[in-house]
Amino acid sequence: GAGVSQSPSNKVTEKGKDVELRCDPISGHTALYWYRQRLGQGLEFLIYFQGNSAPDKSGLPSDRFSAERTGESVSTLTIQRTQQEDSAVYLCASSPPVRRPNTEAFFGQGTRLTVV
Amino acid sequence: AQSVAQPEDQVNVAEGNPLTVKCTYSVSGNPYLFWYVQYPNRGLQFLLKYITGDNLVKGSYGFEAEFNKSQTSFHLKKPSALVSDSALYFCAVRGPFSGGYNKLIFGAGTRLAVHP
After folding, report:
1. What b/e readout covers A5-29, taking b as 16+ CB neighbours within 10 angstroms?
2. Touching check for A53 and chain B: CB below 8 Å?
C-alpha cells in the first residue's frame, strides 16, 4: 500500500480483556515504531523494531504490553488484561533502512482504544 | 541518551503575525531533527527535517526551522501565521546510527493557536 496502515481504527473493549492492534508498514521500511498518545498529550515511545535486530522495548509501560514483528512486515501490539488507563490512540510509524537515518518516519492514522 | 524538549505547551499568535515554536534537543553526535504537525483527528504529517548543510531548512506550508548547534535548538518558524496553521506540533530527534539502532524520539508537543 501507499502508506502505513493500522487496524482496527477504533476498538472498544471491556476492562480485563486482551486486545491486539495491527500495523502494516510501508513496503521496504525496515524500521517500525509504536507510540501511545493519550488525549491531548504527546507521543510516548513504546517499542522500536529495526530489521532483524533485537527490538528496543524500553518504552513498554508494563509486562501487559508486548509487540511482535515478523521480518520487515506486519507488527502486532498486544495489551493483556486491559485497564482504563490504557485508553489512548496507538500510533505506528515506519521508516527506511537505518543506513539512511536522516529519512523521516511515516505515520499511520492510529488505533483509538477505549477501555470501558 | 537522546531527548527533546518543547518548553511551551501552547503558543498563541494573531493571524498574519510571525510565529515561533521552540525546540531544544540533547543527543550524542550530530543530530537528525524533524518537525511534525498533527491536525485534529488526523495522523502526524511530516513538515521538515535537518540533516546537514544550511542551518535554515524550508518545509511544507511555508514553515521553516533554524538549526543552532551552539544552542542545541531547532525552532520552527513561519513569517505570517494562518488560522489554518492551528494544530499540535511535535519536534523529534534521531541520533547517529549506533549499534544497529537509530530511535526517533518526540517532544511533548506544542499546541499552536492562531487567532483571526
Report:
1. bbeeeebebeeeeebebebbbbeeb
2. yes
Q: Which three cell numbers stand for residue A32?
A: 517500525
The answer to whether A109 contacts chain B (CB < 8 Å) is: yes
Distance CA B66, CA A37 (A): 27
Mean pLDDT is lowest, of B3-17, B26-40, B56-70, B92-106, for B92-106
Rounded Cα distance, B72 and B88, in Å: 22
**Cis-peptide into A8, omega within 30 deg:** yes
| Closest residue of chain B to A41, computed from CA coordinates | B108
How many other C-beta atoms can be found within 10 angstroms of the C-beta atom of residue A116? 10
**Using CB atoms, which residue from A41, A99, A102 is nearest to B51?**
A102
Within 10 angstroms of residue B64's Cβ, the number of other Cβ atoms is 16
The two beta strands, A106-107 and A31-37, are unpaired
HSE toward the beta carbon, residue B97, CA cutoff 13 A:
10
User: To the nearest whole angstrom, how far is the Cα of B95 from the nearest Cα of chain A?
Assistant: 8
Each residue's pLDDT tens digit, A42-67: 899 999 998 888 898 999 999 999 99
Q: Do A102 and B49 touch (CB under 8 A)?
A: yes
